[in-house]
DNA sequence: CAGTGGTCTAGACCACCGC
DNA sequence: CGGTGGTCTAGACCACTGC
């Protein structure tokens, strides 16, 4: 055989750090992928091939491969094999936090003004984002959040009354709507969209903005099992609020 | 002992699914946390306590605890113990992708115009964001990316020449700067800030925007080990680009 | 059927921490 | 020092896949 096997490439790539073996195996595999020697969708060696080539226990190899799978580098299929995933390395994360906690963590004072808290008949759009039918009663709240008396978020929220029947009876000076909803209906998944918009005149007034000041708009839909719990539009003045995120690579 | 121990609470909470043991252990622990019986910062049983109580191998317990740690439910300290983490459930993720791939995945055509690709002497701000000294030579590129001939991103990038000496010699019609940089200097961490801004006249012209159209601005700093590789300012027209993210709860 | 990954065990040695 | 987590091994049994 003139051709070099995938495993023997790898055994050359193993560093001799004092780092744990599973870490070094992971790093060696990541290097193969990043440097293009193992391409997307290509099959990587089986666990037993790794074991034979590297002289390491199968549990150790298994841990390396399992972690790389959960980190998105590999895809495994029982009875079939392990393959290089696509698309890794170009995505990074951003976190969207609870506004009250975020303000508290900065050591500032959070307060809010409740502008609306009541019931309305769902129009077609409103029904759609909650997964209900047009004309059903739904809950709505409109709250402005302040950081040291400066408005930083306008929270316009629709709530599915079937999931959170007690929604209107809470004191949202004490806990945020999101915290309450988390409590009554553990979230299982969600989706959000971040965009830049110009606020209208009413939004400018409520957020104490000059005209033409751009805002971040986050629209978020939250599910609990098969039901949509809530749909929120969160509007942040661009001058007072930024989303910050950190990400880590191959550790 | 009248008081019920933490472990005996847990052994009652273990379901008798046919699911793998480590999964059932994880779910039982998550339930303790969600239902408030184990509170933030509180110590959870040690691995050997779990082993004795549940009659399961330590490796299995270790896997459950290790995965819960990487999922953010627990914090572990060698020689000390394992503790319930704070704040789970209030954060959600957003992904920031590589622009060219994102366009390709939508089935659209990506192209770009390279407006600048050269060297400049670092001013104080520019030196700071790359972790270099004022007056050093640094690389800069300015590229506008198009989706089906409509501009969607303006990429203004500073690059550390010590990390990527070949940066100026690439053809960025073929691969994006970020892809090239990933290849020469595997990223280890990064930070980005997302905000809403109003573009200036020049930016409006390059992105073919009306005046007063808000934009998303992502500023991203990327590290490789101890060195800053690149600092990028990515400007997206608010009308043509939105960040979308999905998140999942306690699985 | 043989090969794959998925899980589990019962030991082991180590580095680290607090006392 | 004893207790903690961090890692590793050499086996084992199983469910799944493709031929």
Walk me through what this model shows.
2 copies of one chain form a homodimer. In chain A, α3 crosses α4. The two termini of chain A are 35 Å apart. The model of chain A has no long low-confidence stretch (mean pLDDT 87). In chain A, a hairpin with a 2-residue loop joins β9 and β10. Chain A is 28% helix and 33% strand. The first copy, chain A, folds into 2 domains: 79 residues, Winged helix-like DNA-binding domain superfamily/Winged helix DNA-binding domain (Arc Repressor Mutant, subunit A, Orthogonal Bundle), CATH 1.10.10.10; 139 residues, Chorismate lyase-like (Chorismate lyase, 3-Layer(aba) Sandwich). In chain A, the strands form 2 sheets. In chain A, strands 5-6-7-10-9-8 form a 6-stranded antiparallel β-sheet. A 3-stranded antiparallel β-sheet of chain A has the order 1-3-2. With 251 residues, the first copy, chain A, is α+β, with helices and mostly antiparallel strands. Chain A has 8 helices and 11 strands. In chain A, 31% of the residues are buried. At the A-B interface, α2, β4, α7, β8 and β9 of A face β4, α7, β8, β9 and β11 of B. β11 of chain A pairs antiparallel with β8 of chain B. The structure holds a DNA duplex (19 and 19 nucleotides).
